[in-house]
Every structure is written in structure tokens, then in C-alpha cells.
Write a structure and sequence with these properties.
This protein is mostly helical and about 150 residues long. It is built from six helices and no strands. The longest helix has 24 residues. It binds heme C. Heme C binds next to helix 3, helix 5 and helix 6. The site of heme C (HEC) has 20 residues, from helix 3, helix 5 and helix 6.
Length: about 150
């Protein structure tokens, strides 16, 4: 009898502790954190350059990448190709048209590949990639460059 009494007391106490813990924890505390944190407002990227400035930069970088190959300044040319990749990446925000964005993104991708080829001092691959990149310049200009 004594043991039964003890077990009964123990269970009663455990129940009180468990209910107390639930009260302290508050209701429904097991939802994932992500559901409770408010989503931040969507920010749109704003280029600091005008389209003209972007294009002058792109033309200048392309020119110096080509002369870098001729001068054997491979590492400098490779860095310029990465900068051109980012510049073209920003260019996509100058126009909402899908084809404009696709050409700007395509040029950016070509320039990243070009940067790697230049780093490897691979002249043949670098020249092929410059040709591919230039095709993107022309394709976009044919549609979007009004004055020549
Ligand atoms: C996704 C579209 C797009 C791509 C890709 C593009 N351009 Fe342009 N480019 C334009 C537009 C639009 C203009 C016309 C800007 C204006 O005058 O309003 C322009 C104009 C130019 C101009 C004349 C700038 C001036 O001062 O009027 C040059 C130079 C130029 N681009 C070079 C390049 C070179 C070099 C590449 C490739 C490495 C290139 N562009 C790739 C859209 C593009």
C-alpha cells in the first residue's frame, strides 16, 4: 500500500510539473522560426551608371582585354574580363525586355569563361570567347541601339 501511495504522489507531481512547463512555454511554440519572422521588402537593384556609361566601360574593357592578349598581360586581361562580366550583369537592369536581359546575361557568362581562359593563358580559347561575346554585343545593338 505504501508503494502504491508513493507512485500515486509521484505521478501527480509529475503531471503538475508538466502542465506548469507548458504554461511557462506559452501556446504553440513549435512553429518553425521562418514562419514567424516577417519577410524583408524585396529590393530592386539600381545600376549607378547610365546605359551610355555602361557601354563606354564595356567597350573600353573589351579593347584593353584584346591588347592584353597581344601584350601578354594575361592576368590583367583576366581581371578586366571579370569586371566586364559584372558590368554586363548590371546592364540587364537597364531594360525589362526578356531578350535584352538574355543578351546581357549571356555576355556576362561569356566574360566569366573568358576570364578563366585568360588566366590559363589559352590564346585560342580566349579569342573564340571574345568572338562569342562580340556576337552578343551586336545582337543586342541590332535591336536596342538606336543611334550609331
Ligand atoms: C543587352 C544589350 C547590350 C549589349 C549586350 C551590349 N550593348 Fe552596347 N549598347 C546597348 C544600347 C541599348 C546602346 C545604346 C545606348 C544609347 O545610346 O542610349 C548601346 C550602345 C553602345 C555604345 C555606344 C555608346 C554611346 O556612347 O552612345 C558602345 C560603344 C557599345 N554599346 C559597346 C558595347 C560593347 C563593346 C558590347 C559588348 C562587349 C556591348 N555594347 C554590348 C546595349 C547593349
Amino acid at each position: 500500500m505504501k508503494l502504491k501511495y508513493r507512485i500515486g504522489m509521484f505521478l501527480a507531481l509529475a503531471t503538475v510539473v508538466a502542465l506548469g512547463a507548458r504554461l511557462v512555454a506559452g501556446p504553440d511554440n513549435d512553429k518553425p522560426m521562418t514562419e514567424k519572422v516577417a519577410k524583408p521588402a524585396k529590393e530592386t537593384f539600381k545600376p549607378v551608371l547610365t546605359v551610355e556609361e555602361t557601354m563606354e566601360g564595356q567597350a573600353n574593357l573589351m579593347k584593353s582585354i584584346k591588347s592584353g592578349i597581344l601584350d601578354g598581360a594575361w592576368d590583367e586581361a583576366s581581371i578586366r574580363a571579370t569586371v566586364l562580366a559584372e558590368l554586363s550583369n548590371t546592364n540587364q537592369y537597364h531594360n525589362d525586355a526578356k531578350d535584352y536581359k538574355t543578351w546581357a546575361q549571356g555576355l556576362s557568362k561569356d566574360c566569366l569563361e573568358l576570364a578563366r581562359a585568360l588566366k590559363k593563358r589559352d590564346e585560342k580559347e580566349s579569342k573564340a570567347l571574345i568572338t562569342r561575346a562580340n556576337e552578343k554585343c551586336s545582337a543586342c545593338h541590332d535591336v536596342y541601339k538606336k543611334k550609331w
